[in-house]
Amino acid sequence: MSVVIAVVVIALVFTYINGFHDTANSIATVVATKVLTPAQAVLMAAGTNLAGAFLGTAVAATIASGLINAGVIEMSSQLLICALLASIVWNLITWWLGLPSSSSHALIGALVGAAIAASGNNFGSVIWEQGGWVKGQGVIPKVIIPMVLSPVAGFIISFILMGALYALLAWFANRHGWSRRFGRTPFVNFFFGKVQILSASAMGVAHGMNDAQKSMGIIALALAGATTAHQFDHLPGLFSFLRINEDPTGGFVIPVWVKVVSALTMAAGTAGGGWRIIKTLGHKMVKLHPINGFAAETSSALVILTASIFGIPVSTTHNVSASIMGVGAAKRFNAIRWSVVERMVWAWILTLPITALLASGFVLGFRLVF
Predict the structure, then answer these.
(1) How far apart are the first and last CA of the chain?
(2) Residue 131: predicted pLDDT
(3) How far apart are CA 370 and CA 368, in angstroms?
(4) Distance of alpha carbon 229 from alpha carbon 241, whole angstroms
């Protein structure tokens, strides 16, 4: 019982730190363009993340049952603790360096590494590909391929959208004699400043629909295992909320309190430490105006919402960053500070293998100690 509680607590710590990274990414543009103050953006992130968390559980189901082969190894509480600790360590390192790495891929890499180590280096403990590339499960179709394609899609969509907005404004400028400083005229800033609140809200909903569900999946998985093992049977009725009921479709129902606590913890993390990441994305990589923020948020929200519907745990970090790059490239290619981008890409590449190795080390350490 105490181990299950430890999983829940550590999962919430991971969720809080996730707020440093991913929720900060989701509001970086609206803060950088000064459309909302940091306090206003955090409140908006809390509300929209909470709303998104209730819009589906497909991503939570992927984390809970679509990556690790239950026929080879059981997702024990000890394994989950090792995976969570590894992802927390990596998230703290990259947060301290101000690098917007992926909390999603940190968790997934750690789960894979922990499972392989716990099974005696049996790579069959991980579902690599199962049931086809579109609706199937596994690390390759659900993680590796989307890890490459989703930021590429975000870059292309934001580049096209930004180019289309520039072309539209150029047409109006020629027709009505407006200033051709498209992103900096008072009217354009005012209009897109208002519209960007909508795009930022959509980004928050998308983030809640995808990222908040990752912690939900871990917590629900731990509670489901304890329920199956009858660890909660001796508890008084006051604690009946801890039990997980099975879903008629074969999965399990994620309790409302898990959704609420996960979403609120993530919002608290944004308020507590997200400004390092916001500075990197919103100020260091490319200078943003409201029209740029609108294009970047709309593009990344579209990609993340689409992925969430199919239960694909994509990285908000990757998609927001790529969308900002696309917007910058639409301005002019040298508008992007490519040295910052290079550091970010290295963090993306290293996240999966490093967290897998960290989790393996924690599994071996647990075995030596216990």
Answers:
(1) 17
(2) 74
(3) 6
(4) 16
